[in-house]
Amino acid sequence: MKTWAEPFKIKVVEHVRIPSEQEKQAAIREAGYNTFLLRSDEVYIDLLTDSGTTAMSDRQWAAMMIGDEAYAGSRSFYRLEEAVQRYYGYKYVVPTHQGRGAENLLSKTLIKQGDIVPGNMYFTTTRLHQELAGGTFTDIIIAEAHDPASLHPFKGNVDIAKLESVIQKYGAERIPYVSVAATVNLAGGQPISLENLRAVRELTNKYGIKVILDAARIVENAFFIQQREPGQNGRTIAAIVKESCSYTDGCTMSAKKDPLVNIGGFLAVNDHAVYDEAANLAVIYEGLHTYGGMAGRDMEALATGIEESLHDDHIRARVGQILYLGQKLIDAGIPIVQPIGGHGVFLDAKAFLPHIPQEQYPAQALAAELYLESGVRSMERGIVSAGRNKETGEENKPKLELVRLTIPRRVYTQAHMDVVAEAVINLYARRDSIRGLKMVYEPKYLRFFQARFEPLT
Ligand code: F0G
Question: Which domains, from first to last, does the chain contain?
């Protein structure tokens, strides 16, 4: 592989500040030991998320100046629609304010009370919208995805036999669609192969069931296909993305990820009746179907971002930076999810802190300690994110208890990655001193965003 050096140079910089020891202590206490509740001014290197944190290019900023802010029929909408049709291959597009807006429209359009929605691992907002629409999510990802040490090259794959048994158990009429994510965020940014996508398509065709793609990280997924799947190495990222989409009936898109913008999203489908219903719902929940919660200038930046995201040298540098950080941690003996994912490095908090039981939120505690150690902000992806069972009210106890170091696109340098690696390595050396947490405030929905904790004594 060629060097992953960035195919750009830097034109504008944003200063960052390193908070003092005292500031960090006060800030994390004030935030209830939840990194979502820190102010970004209190953070040195912000690896909370890769969502909406992208640096846009000069071409994207230039495109924003020519955004058409017409309420109806904006020229910028038609430019976005054309980009979606050309690069992903779907026929109809409804813009939304971000990914969960598209999930809401899709769930309300396709799911009825009592339906079952199989998916390759849940995602927080996606599953909640399925449930609010009356559906129940069921996991059909391969078993390897739940094992942080498995080196399977496509841990995002659907277990085809499991999917077929779900279809036979509930009947095709109760399955509005199969939800396929590429890559799988909560498995650690793990990809699904083209071969597996094709197999999902063949099986669902047999039963007349739709497939809906969560396309937020479809470009990172295509990079892994290009690198790992037999016969794919000579192909362009753009060709692999388009083929991936061709095995599905539509997608929800959080444009805040791979498409390189700070806000926005869309629902794209091939079925005109589904489009009609979703476009109609859009006027209630988002905005008119030709802007759906986005400004004209945002649609311009997105159309340009989609095109830039598909350049082979862009995605090689993007994922290359993550592989660089991950490899440093592996070399130092830190337990992380392997293979290294597409949008971040995931620390295995169960292996990092074996002395803290899952009911004491080890990943939450580890994220808080990493902030105290270094001013680096990360995110819990474990029992707090998994929430409660919708019937029993019990806490879901996921096998994966992770801390996500998520790398924004085109934002940080290699030296920043070195700082992060040093911080994690220092923390690992003093891991025995880290204690668990108790939850003192629990919100009703998506509790990880706003929950508050206190250290156990
Ligand atoms: N699907 C996936 C796989 C996601 O990772 C996200 C967001 C969404 C859907 C929802 O999109 O935020 O635009 O409404 N993930 C962010 C994250 C929040 O940090 O992983 P959204």
Answer: 21-50+312-455 (3.90.1150.10), 58-309 (3.40.640.10)
